Amino acid sequence: MNAFLDRIQRKDASILMIFNNSIKCKLLDILMPIITYIGSAIFGIIFCIISFFYFKTKILSIETATALIVSSLIARFIKVHVSRIRPYITLKNLYTRKIGIDNYSFPSGHTTAAFSIGVMLALSIPSIAFFSILTAAAVGVSRMYLGVHYPTDVFVGMLLGTITSLSIYFLI
């Protein structure tokens, strides 16, 4: 099993290095730190408060808050137990932009939160589904651009946020 995980880690690092070093530019240096905060806890809280008062039905706010809480708890549990060190700590020649974070990367909490919000919005307001999912995906891309997550961190964050939102949407 260790050989399999080592192979995944090497492939993950290789893909990240190619991706991270091939798209760097001044415009993205400005945009990606902004986009990444769409997956932050502060953004999630603000989104839930605004949606509670803005939308005619309060269910979007309640479902989104529930999805954020559940998916964040699951992501945190996994993160602490897997303890995967962030790529900017272990990889040399990785293009990074410094942002405040902890040391562990798997899964991406920002991507998890962004997909919890994005999928819930897509389900609740289908007319903006494309935009909400695209925005959530941009958060995942920003995490790799900033050098703080491997592709598998982002992929699992996408799955976790999506599955949690789908489950809550169809159960509540």
From TrEMBL:
<protein>
    <submittedName>
        <fullName>Membrane-associated phospholipid phosphatase</fullName>
    </submittedName>
</protein>
<feature type="transmembrane region" description="Helical">
    <location>
        <begin position="154"/>
        <end position="171"/>
    </location>
</feature>
<dbReference type="InterPro" id="IPR036938">
    <property type="entry name" value="PAP2/HPO_sf"/>
</dbReference>
<keyword id="KW-1003">Cell membrane</keyword>
<keyword id="KW-1133">Transmembrane helix</keyword>
<feature type="transmembrane region" description="Helical">
    <location>
        <begin position="59"/>
        <end position="78"/>
    </location>
</feature>
<feature type="domain" description="Phosphatidic acid phosphatase type 2/haloperoxidase">
    <location>
        <begin position="61"/>
        <end position="169"/>
    </location>
</feature>
<dbReference type="InterPro" id="IPR000326">
    <property type="entry name" value="PAP2/HPO"/>
</dbReference>
<feature type="transmembrane region" description="Helical">
    <location>
        <begin position="113"/>
        <end position="134"/>
    </location>
</feature>
<keyword id="KW-0812">Transmembrane</keyword>
<dbReference type="GO" id="GO:0016787">
    <property type="term" value="F:hydrolase activity"/>
</dbReference>
<dbReference type="GO" id="GO:0005886">
    <property type="term" value="C:plasma membrane"/>
</dbReference>
<feature type="transmembrane region" description="Helical">
    <location>
        <begin position="30"/>
        <end position="53"/>
    </location>
</feature>
<dbReference type="Pfam" id="PF01569">
    <property type="entry name" value="PAP2"/>
</dbReference>
<keyword id="KW-0378">Hydrolase</keyword>
<keyword id="KW-0472">Membrane</keyword>
